[in-house]
Specification:
The protein is mainly alpha-helical and 458 residues long. It is built from 19 helices and five strands. Helix 4 links the parallel strand 1 and strand 2.
Length: 458
């Protein structure tokens, strides 16, 4: 059992006592007096090499590369067969260009892809165009950002969006495509879109919920490309493969190819996970649907938990079902929320590949602890999970965890430590949450959990 799992287990009794605390009620006022430090950014990725067997990776490669997220099959492998250029059009904030250049360097270094950024007025293989979020979601309501083949920008997409030109299943080779992303969102959200959509522009077009070590998963716990993702992209552009190959042809070449690229994965154990049913996916998508009424979303999450248990999915899919149920039960059924978080946390914490997933659960449990006046418990939970969050480069989650610790330190009277840590946390919040008003709002919401601020410290 990991240290995070042990801490969660030891604090169960304390957390049950505070299960009815109103941890999701937002502060009614924003602390405009909070002085905001400069924005913090991550210096560089610490990419862990995947430890899975090549047999497992080969199976995932085929499922990622020969299906769309909708389940529609793709007849052939497609990729770029010439050096790739990327341009940015629209209103691009400075952080976007910095993050894009870092990502392109990772593609070159870790995936061996011949790719470079070019000027906005030059023709390019990939056009990244920023669009106001409201306009983007009017066109595709369910997508935060997306990639489209055979178009050179937003106007071209709108002209051809319902034609065969934008149908991935008709593609034989990738030559030009566009990535569309919102221009008016926090820096982290822009970076996350860059990682997911550029990865799909270059390689796999599918997402699979059973993947615990990849951005190719709609649970959105991994938001920057992992070692597994880079290996998938390196294999996609290996000389043994080419556009137009069938699934059977690719399957025949993958064993030797992966043994060459990932010698550590030879002969590892391989126990295939049960197939993720479309019924479960539909329930999860309903539970995550922001446009759906809360009662229906919670009911869908409960059904997802039932389906996962019936399928004996004692893995990240059951944990994600429980996590979704916990989030949707806050403020409605707090005891159910706490129970769901604890079960999800135990599953995530038992697997090294889901450390950042466990940290998302830990954020909820740390909030419960803080609200119940259990400052030392909250600090232990935060400290156990911060390393995984830093490695995953999730500034929003890091800022939230550190802000919980700030309030816990204040509750213990350790004001100097709290002041120093608050400055760091707000620096990360500026990257994770964006506008100053939003940063102050998040800090105030977490501050409202502190019993001292609520005026009834024990």
């Amino acid at each position: 059992m990991t240290s995070a799992a042990k801490i969660l287990a030891r604090t169960l009794a304390l957390l049950v006592l505070v299960a009815c605390a109103p941890v999701t009620e937002p502060a009614n006022q924003r602390d405009t007096a909070i002085e905001l430090p400069p924005m913090r950014v991550f210096s560089g990725p610490v990419t862990a090499i995947t430890t899975r067997s090549n047999a497992s990776i080969a199976r995932d490669f085929l499922d990622l590369s020969f299906s769309l997220e909708s389940g529609r099959p793709l007849p052939v492998l497609t990729r770029f067969e010439a050096p790739i250029t990327v341009r940015v059009t629209g209103e691009a904030p400075p952080s976007m260009i910095t993050d894009l250049d870092r990502l392109i360097e990772r593609f070159r270094r870790e995936a061996g892809i011949d790719i470079r950024r070019t000027d906005a007025d030059e023709p390019a293989s990939i056009t990244i165009e920023t669009v106001p979020r409201r306009e983007l979601q009017r066109a595709v309501p369910q997508a935060a950002c997306f990639v489209v083949p055979r178009v050179t920008g937003w106007a071209d997409f709108k002209r051809n969006r319902r034609t065969a030109q934008t149908d991935w299943t008709t593609l034989k080779v990738r030559e030009k495509l566009s990535v569309f992303m919102p221009s008016d969102v926090p820096p982290q959200e822009i970076r996350d879109c860059l990682h997911e959509e550029l990865a799909q522009a270059l390689g796999p077009l599918n997402d699979m919920y059973h993947l615990s070590d990849s951005v190719f998963n709609d649970d959105n716990f991994h938001t920057v490309l992992t070692g597994f993702d880079m290996l998938i992209l390196r294999a996609t552009y290996a000389p043994e493969l080419q556009s137009g190959m069938s699934r059977e042809e690719v399957a025949g070449r993958l064993p030797a190819l992966l043994n060459r690229l990932n010698p550590g994965g030879r002969g590892g154990s391989d126990t295939p996970r049960p197939v993720t049913s479309r019924e479960w996916i539909n329930e999860i998508e309903t539970a995550l649907g922001a446009r759906t009424v809360l009662s229906r979303r919670q009911a869908a999450a409960k059904r997802a938990v039932t389906l996962a248990r019936a399928g004996n999915w004692n893995d990240n899919r059951l944990a994600f079902s429980l996590f979704a149920l916990g989030r949707l039960s806050l403020g409605r059924e707090p005891a159910l929320a706490l129970s769901s978080f604890l079960q999800a946390g135990a599953i995530y914490a038992a697997d090294p590949l889901t450390a950042v997933h466990a940290a998302h659960v830990a954020m909820q449990l740390a909030a419960f602890s803080l609200s119940g006046g259990q400052a030392e418990v909250a600090i232990k939970i935060v400290d156990a999970n911060v390393p995984a969050v830093r490695q995953a480069e999730n500034a929003a989650l890091l800022a939230s965890l550190l802000l919980v610790k700030v309030e816990a330190l204040l509750l213990l009277g350790r004001t100097a430590e709290a002041a120093e840590l608050q400055r760091e946390s707000l620096g990360w919040a500026r990257y994770g949450f964006g506008p100053d008003d939003e940063v102050r709002k998040r800090a105030s919401e977490i501050g409202a959990l502190n019993p001292l601020r609520r005026g009834h410290a024990s």
